[in-house]
Amino acid sequence: MSLSLVQAQDINKVYGDYQPEEAKTSKMIFSIAAHGDMEWSDKIVLYPGAVFDASLRIWHKDKWKSPKIPGKDSKFMERELYVKPFVGFHVRPHFHTAIFAGGELAFRLTTVSGIYGELALTTGYMHTKYNDPVYEWQPDGSFKKVRAGEPHVMIGGNFTAGFDLSKISGAPIALFAGLGLNQTYPNNTQWTKYPYLRVGTSVVLRKEKAKK
Amino acid sequence: MPRFKYIAILLGIITLLSSCYKEPVAKSGQIDEFYFVKNGKVVLPLRVVGKASSNTVIIVLHGGPGGSAFQMRLATSMQNLEKNYKVVYFDQRGSGITQGNVTADDLYVDKFAEDVDMVIDFTKQQLGGSSIFLLGTSWGGGLGTYYLTDPERQADIKGFIAVSAAYDIPGAFILSRQFVLNYANQQIAADSGKTYWQNAIKYYEARPTLNENDYFEHAQYVNRAKGILWGKIPSAEDPGYPGFKLEMYLENFNFTSLNIRMPNGDNIFSAFTNNPNMGNITLPTLIIWGARDGLTPVALADGMYNLLGTPPAHKRLRKDYLQSAHTPFVEEPTKFLNDVRNFVETYQ
Predict the structure, then answer these.
(1) Pseudo-torsion of CA A205, A207, B1, B4, nearest 10°?
(2) Which of A114, A179, A185, B150 is most deeply buried (CB count within 10 A of its CB)?
(3) How far is CA B93 from its chain centroid?
(4) Which residues in chain B are contacts of A93 at CB distance < 8 A?
(5) CB–CB of A126/A152 below 8 Å?
(6) Where are the beta strands (DSSP E) in A10-94?
(7) Residues of chain B whose pLDDT is less than 70?
(8) Residue A138 in contact with partner chain B when CB distance is under 8 A
(9) Which residue of B5, B19, B21 to mutate against A (max A Cβ within 10 Å)?
């Protein structure tokens, strides 16, 4: 038996005792992102917006990676499932301002180096408000200025890739970018697609649970 | 401190995104205003662009059905009309980029006409228009014809500009079907796209009468036969409607174009003909037609001229648009501009 194999066995033994306690952490993430409602024909146009969300971890399983150099800390990949309540808006000039809220179910895989990918399914509600003056025609032929908007249900999904600095340093920050698609109903009995681009930052709160 | 850095980066990104669309700026002496007009639950987007001091207003009735007036505005001829007059663009119910929840029950042609009443009222009350013209193209020309067969409605209008007007859709279908068959036979004789055009002939042999279910496929054949666009499309200066949502436009087009009905419930593709009532129209009318039109072939132009009740001195027929198919305002913009301007100057 070579020396290196003995060392590896020792390390595994050490981490075997260490691993369960290290994995007992809770994690919450709060994010803010610039949300660009996308339009393209001959070129891509982005209409501005923003999204705020909180990620509540409901399941996780860590996969441990032994260090290549003995004596260094072990690291782990994270596989997590989140419920993410969110609220956001976008503005299409001379068309509508949309406010949307809902929840996402997201699966996130974070590598030992902090790079992560996340796939999310979205359900929610979108209310669009006409953002130019609305004049309602009255029975006597006159006009009355009113506020008007339209309700929609919303479903969709997105893929996000990011870099979780809290994984490799003490900074509780992550940066991310992603693409997604929401579909809303109804608009003249049709579903309408809203592709979007998001770029944002998160505060990642990791907390070790009390040791027995 | 690092946290502030990230927030600064984020704000920078938001600012960058905010600058990614172009807000139109009206030139000196011009207006460019956006509104929504609401008729019950139906909300229509409306844009008025043009000479601020002008009391002459041209209201545009777009084609399709289900199309968009905001797309029509991309034509240089329309933008040049704005130099002299106010031009009102609005999307019809269920069409273009209209939002809301119009259902098939809301898509009766008399409701479309009621919306035109609303836009005319809005033009008079809110935009200061005292000299109003209707400019309808294709389906919009048909809608304008339908609207004006009511003599009371003519009282508010100085003149009607009918461009490739679909005033008789079943009649247009017969002529258009023949247009494609003629083109197909020419192509087969010339050994050009033989298989494609042989299939086209089979398609039409199986459909001696076209209806709404055939509209999209028929339109594709007409397009391949250069019956919709024949000439070149000059590029427009203006990028169009700032918040235009193409996805919504396409969905609306697919839905609305096939579902408009006559007051008795018949679909417009089998029942929309104004021929019996066109004698009621007596106001000045300019008829413009592309000589190569395959969707509403040019034979309809003579029919319209003859059916109108307008005295000959006040109706003009311009079918010498030799480089145009179904969209002369796009294909021959200068000629179109001159004809319309001349007509409006005469009757405003």
Answers:
(1) 10
(2) A114
(3) 13
(4) 21, 23, 242-243
(5) yes
(6) 25-40, 44-47, 49-65, 75-92
(7) 1-21, 234-239
(8) no
(9) B21
Are B219 and B26 in contact, with CB atoms under 8 Å apart? Answer: no
Nearest to B137 by CA among B89, B179, B198: B89
> Which positions in chain B touch A175 (Cβ < 8 Å)?
6
Average pLDDT, chain B: 92
| B6 to A173: CB separation less than 8 angstroms, yes or no | yes
Q: What span, in angstroms and rounded, lies between the C-alpha atoms of B131 and B239?
A: 29
Which stretches of B44-168 are DSSP H helices? 69-72, 76-81, 109-126, 139-148, 151-154
- Residue A5, judged by CB atoms within 10 A of its CB (0-12, 13-18, 19+), counts as exposed
Kindly list the residues from chain A whose CB atom is less than 8 angstroms away from the CB atom of residue B124.
Answer: none
- The fraction of chain B above a pLDDT of 70, given in percent, is 92
Beta strands A49-65 and A25-40, pairing class:
antiparallel
Let me know: does A39 contact B245? Beta carbons within 8 Å: yes
How many whole angstroms from its chain centre is CA A94? 29
Chain position carrying tokens 């007596």: B282
Going through B291-334 in order, the beta strands assigned E by DSSP cover 315-321
At residue A14, the pLDDT reads 46
pLDDT per position as a tens digit, B42-63: 999 999 999 999 999 999 999 9
Structure tokens at B317: 């027929």
Amino acid at B280: N
State the DSSP code for A209: P
Distance of CA B280 to the CA centre of its chain: 23
Residues 37..76 of B with a Cβ closer than 8 Å to A: which? 37-39, 43, 45, 47
CB B285 within 8 A of CB B312: no
- Summarize pLDDT for B81-113 with one digit per residue, the tens: 999 999 999 999 999 999 999 999 999 999 999
A129 neighbourhood in chain B, CB within 8 Å: none
Task: List Cα–Cα distances, B253 to A181, B109, B167, B247, B267, in angstroms.
Answer: 22, 16, 20, 10, 16
Q: How many residues does chain A have?
A: 212
Q: How far is CA A176 from CA A33, A202, B101, B166, in A?
A: 9, 8, 36, 53
CA proximity to A168, closest of A108, A100, A115 = A115
Report the alpha-carbon distance of residue B328 to residue B347 in Å, rounded. Answer: 22
Q: Give the predicted TM-score (pTM) of the model.
A: 0.89
Rounded Cα–Cα distance for residues B62 and B58 (Å): 12
Quote the CA–CA distance of A88 and A104 in Å, as a whole number.
Answer: 13
CB B23 within 8 A of CB A94: no
Whole-angstrom distance, CA of residue B139 vs CA of residue B329: 15
